[in-house]
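Thread: quick sanity check before group meeting

JM: Hey all, I'm pulling together slides for Thursday and realized we never actually wrote out the predicted structure for the chain we discussed last week. Dropping the sequence here so it's in one place. If anyone has concerns about the input, flag it before I start.
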Amino acid sequence: MTLDLSKIFQMRPLESFNFTYNLMLSFITQTEETIQASIDKFNAEGPEEYEIEIDAAENIYQYTETYMGLDSHSVELGDIFTSHFPSLQRRSAFLTLFGTYEHEIENLCTNYASTHETNINLSDMKGSGLERAHLFIKKVIGLNESASFSKLRKIVKLRNTCTHNDARYVENDGQEMKQLRKLMTDQSNYFTADGQQVLFHHGALEFVLECFDEYIKEIRSILEATEV
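JM (edit): ok, ran it. Output follows.
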């Protein structure tokens, strides 16, 4: 089912973000509860061990553990089910969170241009997505200095690599993406390197949500100041 937020809040564009924040916070809570339940189940039940006969006469046997269709000869089961799969679930939730806010921020720009009959529309800005919307917010709405968007730029980079490059922080030429390396350095509780991929830890989704909320508060502040 598609939730059309524009039909819920039509009076003031920024009001929809209160609902968006609460909606995404609930979504994150549900995601983390699902992840934790899966981890608890793995820890409680554990993998099953199987004996494989190699040479009975020589008393040679091989043992393997399996869980949910995977075996210990192919992967490290504990790492897969307590770290890698949870990260994949958070990555999926992250893309939903990012896409929701990007869409709402673009709607804000479009509504602002229509309401104020500006000479510049969102489509006139260079680029695409959140970065294009930020350019509109800067040039048209008047948020000249943003303390929060520097973090969002790293999150945009993270979104792009999750969408197009399997969350890798290394370019095809082997060079690290500086913004993602800095994100992992500055927010090491939430993001770490796992091989060449960015691993999402508990708290990562809340961190992204708060980054967006900080940005919305900046926009709200400048709108309230200019519309008094």
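AS: nice. DSSP finds six helices and five strands in the chain. Residues 65 and 71 are 5 Å apart (CA to CA).
JM: adding both to the slides.
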